[in-house]
Write a structure and sequence with these properties.
Elements lengths: L4 H8 L3 H8 L7 H14 L5 H7 L5 E6 L5 H15 L4 E6 L4 H8 L9 E4 L6 H5 L7 E4 L9 E4 L2 H14 L5 E6 L7 H15 L9 E3 L5 H13 L6 E4 L2 H13 L9 E5 L13 E5 L1 H16 L9 E3 L2 E4 L2 H4 L3
Parallel strand pairs: 1-2, 1-3, 3-4, 4-5, 5-11, 6-7, 6-8, 8-9, 9-10
Antiparallel strand pairs: 10-12
Helix pairs in contact: 1-2, 1-3, 5-12, 8-9, 10-11
């Protein structure tokens, strides 16, 4: 037999309303009463009927998270953080994979799964503002990433220019002056890759260090082999940096492999900094210095934003919300101690 609120109330010697308040995490319950009810819950093995709870509010209890690539460790780790943040509010997360393709991002944003979700967190790569201007779906939407849309949806990002400048400043502080950037793209300037390029250039300029074009390595994607190809092209062209700032950790790891194959030691010959702080960066032969976005904060802000919309508290013009970042210093710039 399924244990009910009434069963818990009788075991704890309180009203059903008090049990409901504890289960729903209302604040106005004394610690002693909360502990008393929780003890009864644990003894009876009570589990709330989340489906019924959401249905009473006209919800499904499901939110969707759409990211470009689940195989990318950054997005996998971010998805885990979103799942944890949503679980704190008794929501389940449906994961979607857009492959960073505009057509798929448009399809997701227009609500093709609107009947089964209460809200959508979308991390787009190719989506344009015009794609969202005519959005008819009324499912709450939160945007992640560094592209600026100026639309009535909450947007959560870190300051990419400042983060890049922090990484380059660290390399300059380690005595490096020929600092390459791997990760340039030819598309619009407000995309993360080019915002990080902007930060690279600004910090070098402020330090009075040259930022020649031959130290900028374009990439076709964001994976290990893209970093390896970009690093190999630069070295094959006779360009020899003494440091590399990479668009992300995967590009950095690919570059480090090529440096090793060419007989260049990291960090003594070439120091390397990545971006994203994925777990893989801590377990290579040389651990990776990296810019670490606060993924947990990004996830909490995104879920909280959806909840505000569901409760009718969202701002009509949307908000720009910024998560913090920090530089994690490891062997790829410090060497082994």
């Amino acid at each position: 037999m399924r244990v009910s609120l009434k069963d818990v109330a009788e075991r704890a010697g309180v009203s059903i309303k008090t049990v409901s308040n504890v289960v729903n995490k209302y604040q106005h319950v004394t610690p002693a009463m909360r502990a008393r009810v929780q003890e009864a819950i644990d003894e009876l093995g009570y589990r709330p009927n989340l489906t019924a709870r959401h249905l009473r509010k006209g919800r499904t209890g499901i939110i969707a998270l759409a990211v470009p690539e689940l195989g990318n460790p950054y997005f996998a780790e971010l998805a885990g953080a979103v799942i944890d943040a949503a679980a704190e509010h008794d929501f389940t997360v449906l994961l979607d994979h857009t492959r960073g393709e505009r057509e798929q991002e448009v399809l997701v944003s227009q609500g093709f799964r609107a009947r089964v979700i209460d809200g959508l967190i979308l991390s787009p790569l190719e989506l344009e503002s015009d794609d969202l201007l005519g959005r008819e779906d009324d499912v709450p939407l939160v945007l992640l990433g560094e592209r600026q849309y100026n639309l009535p949806y909450d947007h959560i990002a870190i300051d990419n220019v400042a983060a890049a400048r922090t990484a380059v400043r660290h390399l300059i502080g380690r005595g490096r002056s020929r600092i390459a950037y791997l990760g340039a793209r030819t598309d619009s300037a407000n995309r993360p890759a080019n915002l990080r390029l902007q930060g690279w250039r600004e910090e070098l300029t402020q330090a009075g260090i040259a930022a020649p074009d031959n130290l900028v390595g374009p990439v076709g994607g964001w994976n290990r082999w893209d970093g390896a190809k970009a690093m190999a092209r630069m070295l094959d062209a006779g360009v020899r940096p003494d440091a590399v700032f990479a668009y992300n950790d995967l590009v950095a790891i690919g570059a480090m492999r090529v440096l090793h194959e060419r007989g260049l030691r990291v960090p003594w010959d070439v120091a390397v900094v990545g971006f994203d702080d994925i777990a893989e960066g801590q377990f290579g032969a040389v651990t990776l210095t990296t810019v670490s976005p606060d993924k947990q904060a990004i996830a909490r802000l995104a879920v909280a934003s959806l909840l505000r919309s569901l409760e009718g508290e969202a701002e009509p013009e949307g908000r720009e919300l910024t998560a913090e970042f920090r530089l994690v210093e490891r062997e790829s710039t410090l060497g082994r101690r």
